[in-house]
Design brief:
The longest helix has 30 residues, at 89-118. This protein has helices at residues 3-23, 28-54, 59-80, 89-118, 121-140, 143-147, 154-165. It has seven helices and no strands. Helix 1 (3-23) packs antiparallel against helix 2 (28-54). It has one domain. With 167 residues, the protein is mainly alpha-helical. The structure holds fe (ii) ion (2 copies).
């Protein structure tokens, strides 16, 4: 498997979860947790492993991608701090979905094809192993507290969430 194939697989999974969330219903809270932990782990393996390894191929696109991750993280934080019954939930979900769609489209259309050409097979296999390992580690951690910058207790997290949604 190419490093970009692993990332594309994760993109498809996020799209599925967004579709489920759009429909709403009883499973919303669990689906939202899945989406949040997947997105956090996905952006982390790109930021920590994939982007640094391929930066020299397309430095400008990588710099933009890092900024887009930061914006997505901001909106994700607002979304998971929002009760699905609140009227702010739908617009926050929509904006996050649009940000991610745009970002994924640029990665898959502009960035990944160039990287696939530049990366050797052995290097790509190495990256896949490192990213899979790190993805698992992050998912096993308390990922949501990672998003709230180390807020460990529910109390600290809810304060961080209040800050995130303050208007
Ligand atoms: Fe990605
Ligand atoms: Fe990305």
């Amino acid at each position: 498997m190419m490093a970009t194939d692993l990332l594309k697989k994760q993109h498809r999974k996020a799209e599925e979860l967004f579709k489920k969330l759009e429909k709403g219903g009883r499973m919303t809270a669990g689906t939202l947790d899945d989406l949040a932990t997947d997105l956090i782990a996905h952006m982390a393996i790109e930021n920590e492993i994939f982007y640094p390894a391929v930066r020299s191929v397309q430095p400008d696109l990588i710099a933009e991608a890092i900024e887009e991750h930061a914006v997505a993280e901001f909106e994700l934080k607002r979304l998971i701090a929002t009760n699905p019954k609140d009227k702010a939930f739908a617009p926050r979900l929509k904006v996050l979905q649009e940000l991610i769609e745009h970002h994924v489209e640029e990665e898959e259309r502009d960035l990944f094809p160039k990287i696939e050409k530049a990366l050797g097979g052995a290097r790509s296999t190495e990256l896949v192993a490192a990213m899979q390992q790190r993805f698992k580690e992050i998912k096993a951690d308390d990922t949501l507290s990672l998003l709230f910058k180390g807020a460990k207790s529910a109390d600290e997290r809810s304060r961080a969430a209040d800050l995130a949604t303050a208007t």
